[in-house]
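WARN retry 2 of 3 for item q-0093 after timeout on previous attempt; input resubmitted unchanged.
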Amino acid sequence: MARVLLQVPATARRGEVIEIRALIQHPMETGFRPDASGVVAPRDIIRRFACTWDGETVFSAELHPAIAANPYLSFTALATASGTLEFAWTGDNGFAQTETRRVTVAE
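OK item q-0093 returned
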């Protein structure tokens, strides 16, 4: 399991735009670079990231080999109702990871 750092406000006011930041520790090997012995290392990248708020997609991205190791994503969402944010990363070699965070929205 990869190490994940998420910055999500625990509370927000209804109608407030909140900033969400996600960082996942992953080497993002392109499949083009030779390793120390001169053999090309096999490709191993995160291909897709998605964030949903109670099942509704608020942000998604397709990642490609040019993305640096330990991808960092920052985006905003409109707080309309309390709910659970689900973050999902999927990639090569069967890589899949999901994290959740709860946001409470006040009037």
